[in-house]
Write a structure and sequence with these properties.
- Helices cover 3% and strands 59% of the residues.
- It is mostly beta strands.
- Among the domains are: 173 residues, no CATH class; 60 residues, no CATH class; 295 residues, Lipocalin, CATH 2.40.128.
- The longest helix has 14 residues.
- It is elongated and about 155 Å long.
- The N and C termini lie far apart (124 Å).
- The relative contact order is 0.04.
Length: 890
């Protein structure tokens, strides 16, 4: 590679030869060429100078000296400190052939090449040094070995320079910085371990060329930069392993990493960035592969991964361990026409699109918790296994396999999307999520279109996006099947809109599509489910004839013999006489809202006698009431059962001997209910907690000689607030607040019907009028349904008769007063809610009867107690209550 250098005739030359020969060059000696041969030793003292040192089968030792050039053949060179090379003479600062060199703490400078290492057996160790060369910083070839530790290499030529060049050689580079005007480092059929270093070039940062057996680069904790080109380029069947390294290809031609031929990449952690693309795969030979484990890929302007045509070669690309991809174009991976890519995404989160051009073969597998938020377009096969694919645009794929714990969500609420599967769909327990405006048949929705066959099972979850609910006929088409519709789709969770529950139905006959309808799916015929275990219905009255139209027990409707259920009956779920108008299925949640309203309307409703046992009341009192109620709603589809408890304490702030008084009261209560749909079995729970603050006043007059006879007029005013909750099965809990004012005026007159001075019987007609004023209530559910109170304001009243008796003993200090009462109750307020634009009626009669009985007991020390039972009854409504109270007067 280099010829023997003949000293200039103007330069002096020295020679040291022989195994025992040695010489020391002193600082004051003239600079000259030295020839060290045949086992001799030349020592350069600090500050000494030498032109060229020819080391042949010998050894050179130098400390803090100045050497223009070293040429070693089968020699050993140890240089520490000082300088090596010059820009004035020669093109190479140090040449090693079959030699070992240790260069430490040096400034190495050359017009051409800084260090040249050739032939097997050559080892060059450079540490804590700088190498500055115009063309090549370090050049190793023909099985040489180079060790760089804390070395700064600079190749300065802008158009043709290389920092480190390896050919059929090995290099170990640690804590070093390699910079070149053109290529930072190039390797041909060589191997290199690069750790905690930086490589920076204009067109290339690192180039690896050759076969997999010899061309291998292991890069750890290293930054590789190309200011206007490719950070790392692999060709042939070379391999690259990256650990926690950063690759960046900048400029208009910037590529982070490029694979050509049959080269392969395994990256663990770190970043790969490119302006045009982060990773470009041009492989056209077998054996090429890409593994990215916990790596961040970013393309500023183009695609994150670009795969070009590769004939019949399949390129496996695996993304795992939290790998992320981002692309200025929005495309995470693009397979050009003719490319064949097998993409496996495992435990990684991707946001962007996967695109295969026409003629490409792009297979995508998502598994092990992977997520993809984006479009897949022109993929050949997609498999989702324990992973999630969230579409952001319409997607077209050839086939889809959806395994257990896999999820494909077609929309995100901002737009509706179509997933078009040209071929077959295979399900194995996965879930498809669609956004739908739950309304009538033509409602907007995400859609799954399958051109081929379906097989297996899958769940369908439907999110309502603003639908107010409606009665459907054919239903909202969610899934379209062009081939054999052998797959089974089941509704996961609930689909609710307004007051309606929706269910998934398969088309009948040759219609293999799937629809969402606001009606129950038909009950399967047991003979169709299991023909071997099918018993026809038997009439117990006439076992010989299982269906006897003359038998009164036989469920045949004489009004409509075709329909065993009367079509006039609104509960009839399906009327074969009128199949166009099936009964819609209603949600149980409206019943819970109604139960909350009804509980709040009556929780703190008190009369004169309920408040403090009437004439036996004290100046301070406390009352506890518990009740249970039940009613029906919405064409009797909903059955509501509830209970409530309340505590009220009060005290007179003024009281007259006649029994007239003015006082204040404070109430606290809660109620819970269950609303059940009799058709579906779905239920919802309603819960209310409330407080009320009020004032009351009573005027008594009439018979002064008899404290139990005469007039009374009573009134109260309360301000109440309530915290409400509705819990639907499979739905988000709904929470909302309400407030109300309530006022009542009551009057009565007690007549003595007989008795003695210590006992008597009294009849008391009573009349009470009241008014509820509700603040406007509007609540929007998580599914978009708007719930409002419908005409809850209004008058209420009751009129009735109370029969009571009084008994005194112990010189009149103790008395008891049992009673029974009957009232007629009426209200003008509606027990209704509005779900979007439809009214939900509680079917609570405006008028109902009330019956009560109880007793009060007063002791001479001023302590009193009372208790009672109450029953309200009307068609479709009932309520039972019990109350106890204590009082004290002074």
């Amino acid at each position: 590679m280099a010829a023997l250098v003949i000293p200039s005739p103007h330069a002096l030359a020295g020679a040291v030869s022989g195994p025992d020969a040695s010489h020391v060059v002193q600082p004051g000696d003239r600079a000259e060429d030295w020839f060290i041969t045949d086992g001799a030793l030349l020592t350069l003292s600090p500050q000494s100078r030498t032109l060229i040192a020819f080391v042949t089968d010998s050894r050179l030792e130098a400390t803090d000296a100045h050497i223009n050039e070293v040429i070693a053949t089968r020699g050993r060179v140890n240089v520490r400190g000082g300088t090596l090379g010059t820009l004035g003479r020669g093109t190479v600062a140090a040449r090693f052939r079959y030699s070992v060199g240790h260069l430490e703490d040096l400034d190495i400078i050359a017009t051409g090449t800084g260090i040249e290492a050739l032939r097997s057996g050559t080892e060059v160790h450079v540490s804590r040094s700088t190498v500055t060369a115009n063309q090549i910083g370090v050049d190793a070839a023909d099985n040489a070995q180079v060790f760089l530790d804390d070395v700064r290499v600079a190749a300065t030529n802008y158009f043709a320079s290389t920092g480190v060049k390896l050919m059929d050689s090995n290099a170990w580079i640690t804590d070093s910085h390699i910079q070149a005007g053109d290529v930072a480092m190039t390797m041909t059929d060589s191997s290199a371990d690069i750790t905690n270093s930086t490589l920076s070039g204009r067109t290339l940062g690192l180039q690896v060329i050759g076969s997999a057996a010899t061309a291998q680069a292991h890069v750890k904790g290293t930054s590789v930069l190309a200011t206007n080109g490719t950070a790392v380029a692999l060709s042939g069947t070379a391999s690259l392993t990256l650990h926690d390294s950063h690759l960046s290809g900048e400029g208009s031609n910037g590529i982070g990493l490029r694979l050509q031929g049959g080269s392969s990449l395994a990256a663990y952690g770190g970043h790969i960035h490119g302006n045009l693309s982060a990773l470009r795969v041009d492989s056209n030979l077998e054996g090429s592969s890409v593994l990215l484990d916990g790596v961040q890929l970013k393309a500023s302007a183009g695609d994150a991964i670009l795969v070009t045509p590769a004939a019949s070669t399949v390129i496996p690309i695996e993304l795992r361990g939290g790998t992320t991809l981002s692309a200025g174009s929005g495309t995470l991976l693009r397979a050009q026409a003719g490319a064949r890519v097998d993409l496996l995404v495992s435990a990684s989160h991707l946001v962007g699109n996967l695109v295969g051009h026409s003629g490409a073969a792009l297979d995508v597998t998502l598994r092990d918790g992977a997520t993809l938020v984006g479009q897949i377009d022109q993929a050949r096969a997609v498999a989702v296994q324990d992973a999630r694919w969230q579409l952001t645009a319409d997607s077209h794929i050839a086939s889809l396999r959806l395994d257990q714990d896999g999820l494909v969500a077609l929309g995100r609420g901002d737009a509706f999307h179509v997933l078009n599967i040209l071929g077959n769909f295979t399900g194995s327990g996965g879930t498809i999520v669609l956004n739908t405006v739950l309304a009538s048949d033509n409602a907007a929705t995400d859609k799954l279109i399958i051109g081929g066959d379906t097989s297996g099972t899958a769940h369908v979850r439907v999110n309502n996006v603003g639908g107010a609910g409606a009665q459907t006929v054919q239903g909202i088409e969610l899934i379209q099947v062009g081939g054999a519709s052998n797959g089974t789709f089941t509704l996961a969770g609930r689909a609710v809109g307004g007051q309606y529950d929706y269910f998934l139905h398969k088309g009948t006959g040759s219609d293999g599509n799937w629809y969402l309808r606001s009606q129950l799916p038909p009950t399967p015929d047991p003979c169709d489910v299991d023909p071997n275990n099918c018993t026809p219905p038997v009439d117990p009255v006439d076992p010989i004839d299982p269906i006897d139209p003359l038998d009164p027990v036989d469920p045949v409707d004489p009004v409509d013999p075709v329909d065993p259920v009367d079509p006039v009956d609104p509960v009839d779920p399906v009327d074969p006489v009128d199949p166009i108008a099936p009964t819609p299925v209603l949600r149980p949640e409206p019943g819970a809202y109604l139960a909350n309203l009804q509980a709040a309307q009556t929780m703190f409703r008190l009369g004169y006698h309920e408040r403090e046992a009437g004439q036996n009341g004290g100046r301070a009192w406390a009352r506890v009431e518990g009740s249970r109620s039940g009613f029906e709603a919405v064409s009797r589809q909903l059955v509501i059962r509830g209970n409530s408890q309340s505590l009220t304490v009060g005290a007179d702030v003024w009281r007259h001997d006649s029994g007239s008084s003015v006082g204040m009261m404070l109430s606290s209560g809660n109620a819970s209910s269950t609303s059940t749909n009799t058709l579906t079995g779905y239920y919802a729970r309603g819960k209310v907690k409330g407080e009320a603050l009020g004032v009351y006043g009573t005027w008594r007059g009439g018979n002064g000689a008899d404290p139990y006879a005469g007039f009374y007029v009573d009134g109260s005013l309360q301000r109440a607030q309530f915290r409400n909750r509705v819990e639907g099965v499979g739905l988000v809990d709904e929470r909302y607040g309400t407030r109300a004012w309530q006022s009542t005026v009551e009057a009565g007159y007690a007549y003595r019907m007989g008795g003695t001075s210590n006992a008597g019987i009294f009849v008391e007609p009573q009349l009470q009028l009241g008014y509820n004023r509700w603040h406007s209530h509007r609540h929007t559910e998580a599914n978009g349904t708007v719930v409002t109170t419908e005409d809850a304001d209004g008058l209420f009243g009751r009129a009735g008769l109370r029969l009571s008796g009084v008994t005194r003993w112990g010189d009149g200090a103790t008395e008891a007063q049992p009673y029974i009462a009957a009232h007629w109750l009426h209200t003008r307020a509606e027990s209704q809610m509005r779900m979007d634009d439809e009214v939900v009626d509680a079917r609570i009669p405006r008028s109902r009867g009330e019956f009560s009985a109880g007793a009060s007991l007063t002791f001479g020390n001023g302590v009193g107690a009372w208790g009672g039972l109450l029953l309200q009854k009307a068609s479709g409504f009932h309520q039972t209550s019990a109350q106890v109270g204590v009082s004290f007067r002074w």
